[in-house]
Amino acid sequence: MLLTLVVNLMIGCYLAMVYMLRRHDKSFLLWSIACFVFVAGGCAAGARAYIDQPLLTYFLADLLLLISPALVVTGLVLFLRGQLSARSRQQVVLLLTLYVLPLSILHQVNNASTALTSFSIAVIFVYAIVLLKRARLKPVFPVYTLQAFFAVHAALMLLQVVLVLPLIGEDYRAFSLPSLQWVLLGHVLLTIGTGFMLPLLSFSHTENQLMRLAELDDLTQLLNRREFLKRANLTLLHSRHQQHSVVVLMIDLDHFKQINDKWGHAIGDLALKKVADLLKVGLRTSDLIGRLGGEEFAVLMPNTSAEQAALIGQRLCERIAHHAWEIEARPVKLTVSVGGSSSVGALRDLKELLADADNALYQAKADGRNRIVFGPQLS
Asked: Which band of pLDDT confidence, cut at 50, 70 and 90, is reported for residue 75?
């Protein structure tokens, strides 16, 4: 028991120091407090061997031991959602009330409160597993590792319930059982692992967000110009090795300046976002889509012929033109012009393909807009 308290104290100090460096992330503060609360609960529980004060050594001790993992999960919610909603706070209060009511009765019965607390902690860890699964965070390694730790921890708590149940009402301290000593050792190892994985989860998620900010256009959440060109060159090289044809499309919103002048730039931005969303749905998962700037988008379609791309591009034009666009309660007429270029065997470089697609786009504009025009198909 002493080793468990020392480890939690050390992990709590470690998380507190991380919080001092990342004061904007309150989840580290909650995770640190969770460790200190566990130490306080462990000390109160350890006093059972020396004093006969059930209100302190059972009721308060078990309450603190439950609040500790509850704070860990609350920190996870804060980390995932950025804030605790009023509904979340109400749910916490309700669940604590449902726990405290039976605890106020069972703490007077030997080992009964221990069984109740162990079962409640298992439920909390199961909820933490579900919470992480729904979050769909990347990278997945720290998520899967934490879920494994929580699952083993929940299993140990349920094992503790099974071991303690026969001792309810008996004048026998449950934690003197050798089997429960092994459970405590498992708790020590899991606490150490969890204490290090929580910061790793936060740091890796932050790094992933920074990478996304560097790669994606903030408005449309499509690839930005730099990232599109980078990935397009890599895809083009791969297609060349596979001797697959590629197609490049340049897509431009028609009369976009008039939309901005008539409705304002805020409506124009929303129009760009809606068209980007439609491109994500209307194109294939293998296609690279990027916003090159302003109202201009680019698409690289690997393993695609000019004929296939022409059908897809025409379908996009028709879908956008026939859609009843209403942005902020304003009827907005949107159409796009598309220029395409292709290369059999992907032997042309990206710069040349983009230039030809851009020339074809200007031809589509000159021919009346709301259409797709292809440049010459070259090897």
From this structure: very high
Pick left, alpha or beta for residue 378 (phi over 0 → left; psi -120 to 50 → alpha; otherwise beta). beta
Extract the tokens encoding 71. 């704070």
Q: What is the average pLDDT score of the chain?
A: 87
Q: What is the pTM of this model?
A: 0.68
Contact 263, 256 (CB under 8 A): no
Q: Is the pLDDT of residue 18 over 50?
A: yes
Supply the pLDDT for residue 184: 67
At 108, give phi and psi (nearest 5°): -85, -5
- Residues constituting the chain: 379
Q: Which residues are 296's β-sheet partners?
A: 252, 293
Cα–Cα distance, 280 to 373 (Å, whole number): 21
C-alpha–C-alpha distance, residues 362 and 250, integer Å: 10
Query: What distance, in Å, lies between the first and last C-alpha atoms of the chain?
Result: 74
CA separation for the pair 31, 128 (Å, rounded): 13
pLDDT at position 379, please?
44
Count CB neighbours of 28 within 10 A. Answer: 25
88-143 pLDDT per residue, tens = 888 888 888 999 999 988 888 877 888 899 999 999 999 999 999 988 888 888 89
| Strand partners of residue 288 | 300
Q: CA–CA separation, 10 vs 161, rounded Å?
A: 27
SS3 343: strand
How many angstroms from the chain centroid is the CA of residue 143? 10
Contact 107, 114 (CB under 8 A): no
Tokens 């597993």 map to which residue? 129
Would you tell me how many other CB atoms lie within 10 Å of the CB of residue 253? Answer: 21
Amino acid at 138: K
- pLDDT, residue 172, reads 56
Which residues of the chain form beta strands (DSSP E)?
246-253, 288-293, 296-302, 326-327, 330-331, 336-343, 372-378
What span, in angstroms and rounded, lies between the C-alpha atoms of 375 and 362? 11
Confidence of residue 348 (pLDDT cuts 50, 70, 90): confident
Give me Rg for the CA atoms of the chain: 30
Q: Which letter does DSSP use for residue 86 in this model?
A: H
